[in-house]
Amino acid sequence: MNEQIKFIQGNEACVEGALYAGLEFFAGYPITPSTEIAELLSQLLPQKGGKFIQMEDEIASMCAIIGASLTGHKVMTATSGPGFSLKQEAIGYACMAEIPCVIVNVQRGGPSTGNPTHVSQGDVNQARWGTHGDHAIIALTASNHQDVFAITVDAFNLAETYRTPVVLLFDEVVGHMREKLVVPEKGEIAIVDRLRTSVGKGVDYHPYLPREDGRLPMSDFGGDHRYNVTGLFHDMWGFPSNDPKVVKDLLHHLVDKIETNVNIISRYKEHYLEDAEYIMISYGSSARSAIHMARHRREKGEKIGVLELQSLWPFPEAVVREKCAGAKAVIVVEMNMGQVMRQVKACVDRPETVFLANRIDGKLITPTNIKGILRVIQGRGV
Amino acid sequence: MAIKDYLRERFFPHMWCPGCGHGTVLNTLLRAVEDLGLNKNDIVMTSGIGCSARISGYVDFHSLHTIHGRALAFATGVKLSRPELTLLVPMGDGDALAIGGNHFIHAARRNIDITAIVMNNRIYGMTGGQYSPLSGPGKKATTAPYKTIDNQFDVVELSKAAGASFVARTTTYHVQEAIEIFKKAITHKGFSVVEILTQCPTHYGRKNKEGDAVNMLEIYRDTTAKVGSKALTENPALLGRGIFVDKDTPEYCEEYEKIIQLAMREVA
Ligand SMILES: Cc1ncc(C[n+]2csc(CCOP(=O)(O)OP(=O)(O)O)c2C)c(N)n1
Ligand code: SF4
What we know:
Number of strands of chain B: 8
CATH architecture of the largest domain in chain A: 3-Layer(aba) Sandwich
Number of domains of chain B: 1
Oligomer: heterodimer
Largest sheet of chain B: 8 strands, mixed
CATH class of the largest domain in chain A: Alpha Beta
Helix content of chain B: 25-40%
Number of domains of chain A: 2
CATH superfamily of chain B: Thiamin diphosphate (ThDP)-binding fold, Pyr/PP domains
Low-confidence stretches of chain A: none
Largest sheet of chain A: 8 strands, mixed
CATH class of chain B: Alpha Beta
CATH topology of the largest domain in chain A: Rossmann fold
CATH superfamily of the largest domain in chain A: Thiamin diphosphate (ThDP)-binding fold, Pyr/PP domains
Distance between the termini of chain B: 47 Å
Strand content of chain B: 15-25%
Distance between the termini of chain A: 51 Å
Structural class of chain A: alpha/beta
Strand content of chain A: 15-25%
Radius of gyration of chain B: 18 Å
CATH architecture of chain B: 3-Layer(aba) Sandwich
Bound molecules: thiamine diphosphate, iron/sulfur cluster
Number of helices of chain A: 13
Shape of chain A: globular
Mean pLDDT of chain B: 97
Mean pLDDT of chain A: 97
Shape of chain B: globular
CATH topology of chain B: Rossmann fold
Number of strands of chain A: 16
Order of helices and strands of chain B: HEHEHEHHEHEHEHHEHEH
Structural class of chain B: alpha/beta
């Protein structure tokens, strides 16, 4: 039993979650602050008969996991800002060809080489729009190790359910901080396995013909069905097509399969939210400070709470609008120049009540930082 | 099995220009697969982007048509995750050695059991005739209206230096030789490189006044010679054809299998 309680880094919690979800293949390239994920998997994966490979760069790592996913394996890569930029073209390929895979981005300060060893949440928009063209994507995040574990399992489950790349947007503080993790027993968290076609040998298999429920059963490369996978617009056979109807229908399918399921995909936690007049919206390590602040102020009788987002894309608009409906003010607490704040403003009924409490200097935003901004909003002076 | 059984007829007509050498590459490659009696379900063809890369759509194997330059990286994921599969990776010269050059040398260095086919037409066909890292100096291209000044890679020397354990060169003129070379490359355990000179009459031929496809094939006949031949020794200006490297060195997936055994023993 004791073995199941660990005192580890967030990056290690992510590894534990990935293995629990059934990770079998990892390809990566070292980059701070994500490197521990690769290091640990190089040790643990072969112990389970899985495969680890250090590729020549992040582009190759992304491509390799897509190849390995097609042979029927659960796959992951991990990186940080500069590497995440390099992966974008291949992430778009995974969107287009509908290949399940998980991409971890332990965020550091950017742009460019930026601030490798310091915290930031500046890649929220890149996770959404990093690759070119219209598309949809799922991006998840977490603020503590228990949640890092669970959300990582979730990422694999959603990747399989929707046949899509899923981005795990962690940050340097969560990645490197040490805290307790209780690894759940096998079976405690449900695992979604690869949905494979029931079409038998010799019978036509249409790799891109959705079932009635919208899902696309897969067939492993090396199995009975030989089909084409391409990044070009393609028909139900996987054959390239520029027929306007095929192009339009496919784009709608790729976007709708995720956007219309936003309510199912949305993940969030409520902290002291009932009757809250002031609502902080936060995620990742900045949510820790927001929660700390709220707890403290509640003790003093102030009606303040936190809506902690665990899914950032598709943006949980309905949840945010509903939870913030009665708030006097909404304060988005994040470590960038307002990437989530702009989403919040766009979906609440009274955007003029939305404020930003941020820090962009590579340091974790503190409860005191937030408190200062709150005082201004409340008109209590600086 | 007849050659037709290796093709996806639904995919035809193909997109190549009349006289393009890429069809000959497809033909010789499929004849090699046929001669070897390989099972279609065991073959994965991975390609990037270019006229050459379209080859993967026409074959009735598991086919993965990917992004420009990265075919070998995708192939590495397929192969390492399922080493029992046979990986064929046809690439254009730009695909393989400009944008994909880094993946090329690293796949060779790992000696992972993949057959890489460099379909060398010395030009970017698909984008309309720009120079490639295999054009060499003194050539005409749409991005070299005066002439190219860039030196070219020697695919054979580069592959050797990078660690490929099988390296060969042939041309679309020498079809029987090409079939035999493909057979050896595919059966070879380790990273195999086959450079096949293939004519692009539409862009390279026209820009460089090499005439039509027939003329270009005759140039392959007249400017190349078999390795070890008298002609090649007497005239070093000729380009060597044949097998340059064929050696046994540890293969990546087999070596990784040993790592798994080691790791498993450690936890036991
Ligand atoms: C990232 C990226 N850059 C550029 C292109 C445009 N592009 C498509 S094919 C190609 C070159 C094709 O030349 P080659 O690989 O030699 O193959 P060929 O068409 O001659 O057979 C280029 C530059 C692309 N598709 N993707
Ligand atoms: S442009 Fe050149 S390489 Fe492309 S199909 Fe035509 S002849 Fe072949």
